[in-house]
Amino acid sequence: MALLCTVQAVVCSVFCRKMERNVRQRPLKVLLLGHSYIWRLERFMQKRHIYRNLGFSDNLVTVSCCGVSGGGLYDAAVGYTFQQFISHAHEEMPDVIFLHLGENDVRRYCTSLQVVHSLEALVGELLNYASIVIVGQLLPFPAMHHQRHVIVGINSLLEASLNRMHFATYWKHRGGFWRQP
């Protein structure tokens, strides 16, 4: 439920900025990409009708998802996940992409720089298909308690990296998720 609220806030933020610039002739197209968090969010939205389309009117926003359980950036299976995300973006041609990915790579013992560089590369590819890509702050899995410092380091590097990219944004979760030191 907390991820749902976060993604709703992201969409509202982008939607309001777009509305200030011009009156939209079509709904804002949003694509959610990521690992099991996105997969679970999609299932939640399908089961609870009021949260279908993130709870937004179909006239204002259309939401599609591509969540890959166990998905990551940097392993032998990644080529498939990476390509799957790019294919989805190509098919959907969304206005906004929200990406939540990277924690599984930490569990696979990738270095912080490997995760950040892989996310940068994916964001660069995704920007070919969307006006803006928003990357969510990485969150530590409960089983990764001993690697919290790695997640904090990746988030710091990622935020700095995305601040240098045009049309890419780092989204720091607020409230009930995790207050990073």
How do the strands and helices of this protein lay out in sequence?
Layout lengths: L1 H20 L6 E7 L1 H12 L13 E7 L10 H15 L3 E5 L2 H5 L4 H15 L5 E5 L11 H16 L4 E4 L10
Parallel strand pairs: 1-2, 1-3, 3-4, 4-5
Helix pairs in contact: 5-6
How would you portray this structure in words?
It is a single chain. The chain is an alpha/beta fold. It has 6 helices and 5 strands, in the order H-E-H-E-H-E-H-H-E-H-E. It has helices at 2-21, 36-47, 78-92, 103-107, 112-126, 148-163, and strands spanning 28-34, 61-67, 96-100, 132-136, 168-171. It has a 5-stranded parallel beta sheet, with helices on both faces. Helix 2 links the parallel strand 1 (28-34) and strand 2. Helix 5 runs parallel beside helix 6 (148-163). The chain is globular, with a radius of gyration of 16 Å.
Low-confidence parts: none
The coarse overall form would be: globular
Q: State the order of secondary-structure elements, H for helix, E for strand.
A: HEHEHEHHEHE
Number of strands: 5
Q: Assign a percent range to the helix content.
A: 40-55%
Q: Structural class of the secondary structure composition?
A: alpha/beta
Distance between the termini: 23 Å
Strand content: 15-25%
**Biggest sheet overview:** 5 strands, parallel
Widest sheet: strand order? Answer: 2-1-3-4-5
| Average residue-wise pLDDT | 82
Report Rg. Answer: 16 Å
**What is the tally of helical segments?**
6
